Amino acid sequence: MVRILAQTKAAAVNPLKSSQPLAAALAFLGVDGAIPLFHGSQGCTSFALVLFVRHFKEAIPLQTTAMDEVATILGGADHLEEAILNLKARTKPTLIGVCTTALVETRGEDCAGDIANIRLKRTEELAGTEVVLANTPDFGGAIEEGWAKAVTAMIERITRPGEQARQSKKIVILPGWNFTVADIEHLREMVESFGLKPVILPDVSGSLDGTVPDRWVTTTYGGTSVEDIRELGTAEQCIVIGEHMRRPAELLQRLTGVPYVLFRSLTGLTDADRFVSLLSAVSGAAAPAGVRRRRAQLQDALLDGHFHFGGKKIAIAAEPDQLYQLASFFIGMGSEIAAAVTTTDMSKILEEVPAQSVQIGDLGDLEALGAGADLLVTHSHGRQAAQRLGIPLMRVGFPIFDRLGSQHKLTILYQGTRDLIFEVANIFEANRHAPTPEALYPLCKREMPDELRSSPLARL
Prior knowledge:
The protein is globular and about 80 Å long. Helix 12 (289-309) packs parallel to helix 16 (413-430). Helices cover 44% and strands 14% of the residues. The longest helix is centred in the middle third of the chain and has 21 residues, at 289-309. The strands form three sheets. Strands 1-12-11-10-13-14 form a six-stranded parallel β-sheet, sandwiched between helices. The protein has 460 residues and is an alpha/beta fold. Residues 455-460 have low confidence and may be disordered.
């Protein structure tokens, strides 16, 4: 059984995790016509905005209540109300996603009560706009918790409760935070190929896919519609990807009776087969020819790629569900997990990670534990550690700001797993060094019989 090693350092040397409010904002960005609103100081919002822009290379509609010293002492309800009304008047969003920060959470503000009062006093002014609150203090949890809390809050606030008439072929998909734009687009295409109608929440592929609108848009311009969120209860099945998305799935089932099936990962042949089998069972249709062809391509990639993976030592630092996804992939390819570092011990998935131990820590821990590995796997902040250790770096997760197109990187199902095999194998190939005579000489001497090892021939 894997050992979960608690964090012992008083401070992070090279931070690995990002905050809950940032992740909640990312989830709200997957809703059409939405604006995330950080309830806190301007600095909190500015830092998150910089990370978003550097990662996605897009304009991000992120706003703040801009609490000052006085509001910090006396309370920020007035700032929250003013910000909500200004956003409503100027941008007319369909959804304002309020993400609390450590400032208001530490002070102990009743943000839920404040928003309820605002809705009551400003009913007419806020007509047509949903205001959703996600309690996401910076000092607790990390990306997974923030993303899941935002999705849970949207379902709780917007989805119509009660048993409803099921729409044939309609399914709800709740993806994990680590799904890229390309992952979600491919997921939708896969589901639609079975004749099913997917509603994906959140859907960042519609709002952060790098398209240029023909006019200036002050909110998100794509993603899941508020009306689709309201009608989630009409689906006949819910598919959940990632252990951290279990809570919103349970809430949806409790509110509407929609059953859910949880996938811990969609990377790898076994998990992709299970997903395709479920789609076939729900739709009553066999897998299309294109899907079967991609499966055959993955099988060939597995045969071609396993020579490059066998015996390689991998050091990974990622959020719990992504750590499980990547570690399972590498183990399945014949590699060894030399180091596994994650952000929080709050996820049950850590008990299933195929490694001897999982360290709760930062990139400083990855650098210490990953010495001697063949590959480091983490986000862009791990590049200095990789350089110091002389080990190649595979960039995953958030943020990736020193490479283009990270949001269009596919890592799931048959095609994504195939692409992942090729990417890693090419990294190994590019960093493979041909043996030198100096390196081979000690090996040759060890393999010589004793009577020849001391002969003049052995010294040549």
